[in-house]
Amino acid sequence: MSHWKLSLRSNLINTVVFYITISGVAASYAQSSPESPASVPGSATPVSIDATPPVPVKEEKVAEEKVQEVFVTGSRIPRASKEGPTSVTVITGADLEQQGFRNVYDALSAQTQNTGMTQGADYGNTFTPAANTISLRGLGPNHTLILVNGRRVADYPVAYDGSVNFVNLANIPSALVDRIEILNSGASAIYGSDAIAGVVNIILKKEISGYDINVKAGGTQAGGGANQRIQFSGGGTSGDLTGLFGVEISQRQPIWSRQRDFMSSETLDGTTPRRTNSQLNVDTGNYITPGGAGCGGLANSFDHSLVMVQSSQGPYCGSGKALPSYWTTETANQSENLYGALTYQLSGISPKTEVFSDFMVGFNTTKNNTRGPNWTSEGAGNGYFYNQNTGNDESWYRRIAPEEIGGADRYDKKWDDTAANWSVGVRGDIPGSTWNYEAAYNISGYSSRASVPLLLSNVDSFFLGPKLGVNSDGVAIYAPNANNFYQPLTPAQFNSITGVATSQNKSWTQTLSLTANGELFNLPAGPVRLAGVAELGSQGFSNTPDPLINQGVFYNQSEAEGASGSRKRYALGAELNIPITKELITTVAGRYDDYSFAGRNDGKFTYNMGIEFRPVNTLLFRGNLATSFRAPDMNYIYSSVTRGYYASTTDYYLCQLSGQPLAGCSYNNYSPGANYIQTGSKDLKPEDGKSWSYGVVWSPTSNFDVSADFWRIQIDNLVTNLDPDTILHNEANCRSGVLDINSPTCVDAISRVIRNPANAPLNPNAIEDILVNPINAAQERTSGIDLSAKWRIKTSDIGTFLLKANSTLVLSHYYKQFANDPDENLRDSLTNPDWRSKVNASVTWILNKWTNTVQVTRYGSLPNANQTSRISPFALVNYSVNYQITPAASVSLIVNNVFNSVKQDSSAGWPFYPVGNYNPYGREGWLEFNYHFGK
Question: Which InterPro entries does the UniProt entry name for this protein (predicted)?
Answer without folding.
Answer: Beta-barrel_TonB, Beta-barrel_TonB_sf, Plug_dom, Plug_dom_sf, TonB-dep_rcpt-like
